[in-house]
Every structure is written in structure tokens, then in C-alpha cells.
Amino acid sequence: MRSKMINRFIRLATMPALATSLYAQTVQVSANGWSANSKRAAEDAVARKVDDIRASAKRPPLQRVGPSVMDVQLVCTAALTGRKVGDPIFGGLETYHANDLSAETAALKQVTLELPKKKWPRYSVVVERNANSTPEGPAYLVGVARRPGALTEFFAPLMFDVPFKGMNKWKKQIAPGCRNRRD
Q1: Looking at residue 176, what is its pLDDT?
Q2: 34-178 — its CATH code?
Q3: What is the band of 50 on the pLDDT scale with cuts at 50, 70, 90?
Q4: CA–CA distance, 54 with 143 (Å, rounded to integer)
Q5: What distance in Å separates the CA atoms of residue 127 and residue 121, rounded to the nearest whole number?
Q6: Proportion of the chain above pLDDT 70, given as a percent
Q7: Nearest Cα to 182, choosing from 26, 70, 44, 86?
Q8: How confident is the model at residue 87 (pLDDT cuts 50, 70, 90)?
């Protein structure tokens, strides 16, 4: 009798852990019904275009880095609301609408070529589906952010006239559905 109770307790205790493990292994779908793999493939397509534009202009390649939380949430907000957003701290985020992620748009050329490599050697890409996107006619909002060097980006708040003042004002712009987004 006691061994039955112990076995039952073990099964009940391991169920939540098993369920959590199985959930983590499934393909995660974002709030707009887009899988993480599809989103990553879309971002890779835009990154290839950035590399192609740099190469055709005979410019040195840029280092691709993961997007900041701020960029992810700002691009998500722009996709959901249709508002124009920009990076309030570094000013290196450009967004544009696209139906074809491999298109060479003016906004993509601008963010890819206009800033000097020495001051802005890194970039990141965020792609979100627009609110009016359909399976038959996908529409995207693309955000490409040019970034300064890692050390400059890390110490930038200390170099402001008033360090850290207003650093989080951008959070007030974020749409409720985009809060706490990390990727």
C-alpha cells in the first residue's frame, strides 16, 4: 500500500516537469502566429541582403549581432500600431515595410551604407509581421539597427551630459502586446 502511494506521488510530482519539458521542445509561435524558425529565416534573408549591399558597394562587412530588447520591442510596436519608431539612444534603427524581404529598399541602403564603419561596425535585424499581413499576402516590418562597438555601447550612458537620465523613456512607447519581448 505504501509503495503504491509513493509511486503515485512520484508520478504526480514529475508531471509538471515533464509537461514543461515537452512544451519547451515544441516550436514556439509568436503572438502574431509566426514560428521562431520562420522569423529567424526572415531575419537571415535581410542580413544576407545587408551583406550583399555592402559587398556590391565595395565596403567592408559589418558584424551581425543579436538585437537589443529595445529594438525588438520598438519594431514589434511599429508592426502592431503602424507608428514610426526609432532608437532614441543611438539613432541607428531604421524601419521599413516590405512584402519581399530580399528587396533592396532605400531605407535598407541608407542604414547599410551611410554610417561610417569605424563608428558603427555592428548591426542587428528584427523582422515582424505587420498587423495586416495575411497568409496569401505576407507583409513585414523590418528593423535594421546599426550599432557602435560593444565597449562604446556599454559605456555610452556614462558619456551623456546627465548619465542615465531618460534612458528608459522609450519603454513608454511600447505597445502592451510587445512588452517583455526578448526576441
Answers
A1: 81
A2: 3.40.33
A3: very high
A4: 17
A5: 21
A6: 64
A7: 70
A8: low
